[in-house]
Design a protein that fits this description.
- This is IrrE N-terminal-like domain-containing protein.
- It comes from Paenarthrobacter ureafaciens.
- The chain is elongated and about 60 Å long.
- With 138 residues, the protein is mainly α.
- The protein has a domain of 69 residues.
- The chain contains six helices and two strands.
- The protein has a two-stranded antiparallel ribbon with strand order 1-2.
Length: 138
């Protein structure tokens, strides 16, 4: 359901009537991400909770949203092409929070692939620095 919202709120899931409300003035992509995010809350039957539980539920839903919108292949492409989280978010047309959530959701296999690609594709050195690696600036 579309409804103009105040305070920069993109949307929310109304626990009482089960409807998802989204601000129609926001860009289409932000509305889409918000609808999916709030739909996960509805699917998981999240209700109104006190702060610690609310935060943990938000982390779970943000992870699910990140996995839904950012495939590993897309994340890998962004990793190779971009120099920062800001650039990756623009490249993938998501916000920075979803990039961080996707990083936190990496499987062990995905982490290994990113480590290998980091070394082979873009030259990231994962070794511990040694004294010989340090240069003295006079």
């Amino acid at each position: 359901m579309y409804e103009e919202l105040s305070g920069g709120v993109l949307g929310y899931y109304d626990h009482e009537d089960g409807l998802i409300r989204v601000d129609p003035r926001k860009p289409r992509r932000k509305r889409h991400v918000t609808i999916v995010h709030e739909a996960f809350h509805r699917t998981l039957r999240h209700g109104e909770d006190a702060m610690p539980k609310r935060v943990s539920r938000e982390i779970v839903v943000e992870r699910m949203t990140a996995l839904y919108f950012i495939s590993f292949r897309d994340l890998l492409d962004a990793f190779v092409q971009c120099g920062s989280v800001d650039e990756m978010a623009r490249f993938l047309n998501v916000d920075n929070g979803l990039i961080y959530a996707r990083w936190l959701a990496l499987t062990q296999a995905e982490q290994t692939i990113l480590n290998v690609c980091g070394r082979a594709c873009i030259g990231i050195d994962y070794r511990e620095p040694t004294r010989a690696d340090l240069t003295v600036v006079a």
